[in-house]
Amino acid sequence: MKGLVYGGDGRRSWMEVPDAEVRDARDAVIRVDAVTICGTDLHILQGDVPETAPGRVLGHEAVGTVVELGPAVSGLTVGDRVLASCISACGSCRFCRERAFGQCRSGGGWILGHTIDGVQSEYARIPFADLSTYRLPSRVSSENAVLLADILPTSYEVGVLNGRVRPGDTVVIVGAGPIGLAAVLTARLYSPAHIVVIDKAESRLQAAKNLGADVTLTPERVPLGAIRALTGGLGADVVMEAVGTPQTFELCTDLVRPGGTVANIGVHGKPVTLHLEELWIRNVTITTGLVDTYSTPRLLDMLVAGQLDVTPLITHRFGLDEMERAYDVFADPARTGALKVMLTR
């Protein structure tokens, strides 16, 4: 079979790799029917995730059809169409019992495309398949379901819920990539008074408007003054960092009001300065986190009910064998306007 292999130092290749196979009694093997590329994959290529070794098949967001099951997998049958979660959960360690599946200490957590081969391939092995996949109803498309593998639960859990968004809040989202735009969608569920999105790219700011942001700004438009004008001089109740750079994190701490929350979602590959000499007296809460995906069943219910429309997030479509071209498009959004790229069999 073929897969997208990380070669180190920014190198990647769509090439022949060993066939996916059941190695543990709780494994499943899926035929990958739809898969996408995540900003975290680009961070890996940039060397920001040193745990990922050259030779690894990347990817952690896919929908597939079960073709093989280990003897201990329950609740699945060959032929089922399933969402493969970006997080694998053993279900029995301390953290899994607390629904903190991202911190699994028994071989789970974020492993797909990170410490084991991922899903940007023709077939993929899914560990702990009974707890790490979700059977999909026929009325949910594979393309839409893929967006629930990572970006929707990440924006919802690490951004909206960690940020404690409440009705009437002013919410600022720094970064209008796929995660930031998914945060717009999920923050709207809590009826904030204002959703402000900050990004350099006008095309992404327009996408944010289309999804429900009522104010959009570029970093050059003096966002601090604009946010204070919007909030009577206080600052934002919740600020979400959805980029992963020192500059954007510091901007978030500037924009938050006293007693507000900065929810960091972005993947950081470099140290960030934390100005505690300024923040301690303002009662600011800063949260971080890896997604746990405990919200995936609820988000799937909302998708089925038509309460979440994720289709605008998909801007480009490719065949599975066009993986390298899809990476080129996704990695250059300023030129291509790419949000999420979708690859299907």
UniProtKB/TrEMBL annotation:
Keyword Thylakoid among UniProt keywords: no
GO function terms (MF aspect): oxidoreductase activity; zinc ion binding
Keyword Oxidoreductase: yes
Keyword entries, A-Z: Metal-binding, Oxidoreductase, Zinc
Gene3D superfamilies, A to Z: Medium-chain alcohol dehydrogenases, catalytic domain, NAD(P)-binding Rossmann-like Domain
SUPFAM superfamilies hit by this protein: GroES-like, NAD(P)-binding Rossmann-fold domains
EC number: 1.1.1.-
Cofactor(s) for this UniProt protein: Zn(2+)
Residue stretches making up the Enoyl reductase (ER) domain: 7-343
EC supergroup of this enzyme: oxidoreductase
PANTHER family: NADP-DEPENDENT ISOPROPANOL DEHYDROGENASE, ZINC-TYPE ALCOHOL DEHYDROGENASE-LIKE
Family: Belongs to the zinc-containing alcohol dehydrogenase family.
Name this protein carries in UniProt: Alcohol dehydrogenase
Originating species: Actinoplanes campanulatus
